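C1q domain-containing protein: structure tokens wanted.
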Amino acid sequence: PCPFLPAPAITGLRTPRESPIHSGTKENVAFSVRLGNNFPKSGVPITFRDVIYNGQKSYDIMTGIFTCEHPGVYEFQFHCTINKNDASVDLLRNGELIVHSFTTRQDGYITASGNTYVKLQKGDKVWLMGYGVGKTGLLVSDIMPPGPKDYTKENVAFSVRLGNNFPKSGVPITFRDVIYNGQKSYDTKTGIFTCEHPGVYEFQFHCTINKNDASVDLLRNGELIVHSFTTRQDGYITASGNTYVKLQKGDKVWLMANHGSNGLTKDSFFSGHLLQAQAQPVGLDEFQLLHGGLKGDERSVEVVIFI
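Answer:
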């Protein structure tokens, strides 16, 4: 069995306001659930039984599966606390592996975590599955609301996977495997995200480290914003970080490893998305867009899922 332990309760998020731009019904498409038991079964979807919030019943507590009712771009995160055991935690979409997080046995508690953005169609299914893993903590899913009218239909978001072991230190890490890159704002050749739409952004990274010291930094225009450091351990551990930063058009954000032998493995992930666009004067068309003047598939639904 998987050595999962019950996670503490986590407060769910609600959308800022209820309008057609954020919700198709009175209840937001969101859920928050807690594992509630130790050691879930390996090789099948993990079923989180203790419901904190599940407004549209999009998460099935009997099957452990989230089913998409509203097509869009979703953000998923998980943070799994592992107790004295190897742990492999996978996030799958319709059976396809999207994120793989792995840790090896350590004394005491460590964390396996992951983050990604994926485009879902109606009926698509997403779930977590463990293989000999410890406690599952948190999973977040989010459909982002549209920005101002001059944005394209694709959301300002990216999610990328390293795809190779031990990247070069002292320069931007180039994540080559694209999971989602709607506006091509992340350059897989340079490893740099360039802001085209001013506003507040969220960035996250989850780097799997193998048998080495690792220092992973997130920088904005060369300025250190987040520093994550691990020391040498036997086996695999995770270095992760999360931040909100205000960006102007042309600002650049990237990750950098600072140890010559940094230990980063191919199952390392970097993600970011526009959380709140900078306020701009709007005309009638923009006002209608921002306050519900939408039809059919122009409508977006915001979803936040905590486990």
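The chain has two domains: 28-145, 153-278. Residues 61 and 162 are 33 Å apart (CA to CA).

Cheers.
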